[in-house]
């Protein structure tokens, strides 16, 4: 039977426990039944197999008399045992879990669905694991560093040492590459950062002149610590449709009408458009930070940027991402404010 065809108004969940004469047990099980009802928005009736009332058999008969004909039996037993296979499923004429079965109970035509008992549930295992685990804990925590500034400084110092050893770079070039590595969490990235001659100086001077920064996507825009950051994605749809280009490319065409620093962290087509607009208008672009990741257009557009001679900081190949672009430009902003 298709679950989509189940008439919810004639459906009920009968939650069955083994049963106990202890009031606290029934109280706990009722809380679980209430939780199910609130989550599923289907009436849930707590019942028991023995020891206490209501018995599931009486609940089933009462509900069927009231017009219910689809019953989910939620078996709140820990293990399988005879109560499941023989006493309950056998009594209503069902043999399979998680499958609707049309059957007859006391001359009433009904449809039944049984869940498995709980012992094989990974969540039950995990709950028991966490409750037992505390018995073997010493209460001593590792000596974690929790001060955010100390975390960043320690990490940056480790990265600087590795990058300096690997690439033999110093000064601001070392800082830019190290920030890119920090943002990516990948030391391998250092080998793929290409900084064109004079790019850092050009970018810092443009920032000191309070030049605006144009970004490809809003995620990049949101992370840049600069008062003049532009993005035109929200109004680029019409131009994109007219020129049959992507919205991020149209955003670049709309924004790059005067000299600006450009930061591309996500969209290779935006980088393609930067190069196109610059060629068409011979526009002065003091710096392009380009870190778009991917396998289509990303590698090619970044290589074209490197060959163009424009001042640029590029993460070569398929590596990249918005956070890396933001880290690079924020490092230059930091330098410009000295």
Automatic annotation (TrEMBL):
One of its GO terms (biological process) is cobalamin biosynthetic process. Transmembrane segments: none annotated. It comes from the Archaea. Residues 150-334 form the Cobalamin biosynthesis precorrin-8X methylmutase CobH/CbiC domain. SUPFAM superfamilies: Chelatase, Precorrin-8X methylmutase CbiC/CobH. This is Bifunctional sirohydrochlorin cobalt chelatase/precorrin-8X methylmutase. InterPro entries: CbiX-like, Cbl_synth_CobH/CbiC, CobH/CbiC_sf.
């Amino acid at each position: 039977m298709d679950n989509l065809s189940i008439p919810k108004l004639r459906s009920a969940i009968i939650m069955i426990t083994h049963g106990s004469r202890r009031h606290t047990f029934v109280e706990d099980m009722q809380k679980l039944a209430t939780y199910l009802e609130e989550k599923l928005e289907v009436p849930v009736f707590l019942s028991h197999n023995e020891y206490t009332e209501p018995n599931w058999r009486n609940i089933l008969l009462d509900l069927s008399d009231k017009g219910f004909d689809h019953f989910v039996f939620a078996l709140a037993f820990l293990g399988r045992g005879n109560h499941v296979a023989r006493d309950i499923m056998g009594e209503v004429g069902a043999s399979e879990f998680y499958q609707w079965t049309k059957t007859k109970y006391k001359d009433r035509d009904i449809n039944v669905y049984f869940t498995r008992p709980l012992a094989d549930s990974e969540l039950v295992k995990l709950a028991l694991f966490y409750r037992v685990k505390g018995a073997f804990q010493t209460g001593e925590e590792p000596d974690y560093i929790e001060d955010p500034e100390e975390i960043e400084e320690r990490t940056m110092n480790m990265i600087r040492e590795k990058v300096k050893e690997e690439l033999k770079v110093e000064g601001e070039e070392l800082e830019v590459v190290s920030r890119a590595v920090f943002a990516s969490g990948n030391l391998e990235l250092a080998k793929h950062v290409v900084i064109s001659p004079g790019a850092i100086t050009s970018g810092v001077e443009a920032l000191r002149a309070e030049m605006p920064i144009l970004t490809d996507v809003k995620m990049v825009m949101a992370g840049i610590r600069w008062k003049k950051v532009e993005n035109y994605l929200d109004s680029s749809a019409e131009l994109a449709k007219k020129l049959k280009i992507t919205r991020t490319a149209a955003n670049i065409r709309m924004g790059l009408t005067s000299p600006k620093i450009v930061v591309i962290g996500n969209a290779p087509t935006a980088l393609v458009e930067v190069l196109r607009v610059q060629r068409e208008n011979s526009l002065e672009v003091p710096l392009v930070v380009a870190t778009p990741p991917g396998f289509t257009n990303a590698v090619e557009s970044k290589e074209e940027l490197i060959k163009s001679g424009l001042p640029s900081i590029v993460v070569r190949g398929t590596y990249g991402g918005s956070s890396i672009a933001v880290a690079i430009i924020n490092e230059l902003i930091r330098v410009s404010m000295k």
